[in-house]
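name: query_chain
kind: protein
chains: 1
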Amino acid sequence: MILRERKEEDPQFQMAPMIDMVFLLLVFFMMASHLSQKQNIKLDMPTAEAGVVPKERPDRYVINITTNGMLYSGMKPIELEALGDEVKSELLDNPSLKVYLRADKDAPYREVRKVMTAMAEAGIDDFLFGVFSPGSGGGEGP
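structure:
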């Protein structure tokens, strides 16, 4: 009986699946970064030298107040009464809900105070105010 000798091939690393995974990760992170910025409308933020960006920012409920006093829940326009109701329902789903309040630097303070009062009535006592912090690389604070 004659036995033939097998040729052993060196194992090779397959690049095609690795390239596919890199492209999938690239698309995922591009979409995730786009979605995380989607809840902020363009505002001229007040300047604060000591503004600090918190680490738990993504899980905050975002309220935007424009120069003319218009309210936005994220990107969606909303009335003050409806905002209180929406926050109450969010608070039922997430009892540790925190609010990120972004107001334009020219927004009337009475509008900011109205929102803060509505949030207090809804049971929110933890606010984070958005500011522009030139000391931290020129980016927007909280």
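note: Strands lie at 61-65, 71-73, 76-78, 99-103, 127-129.
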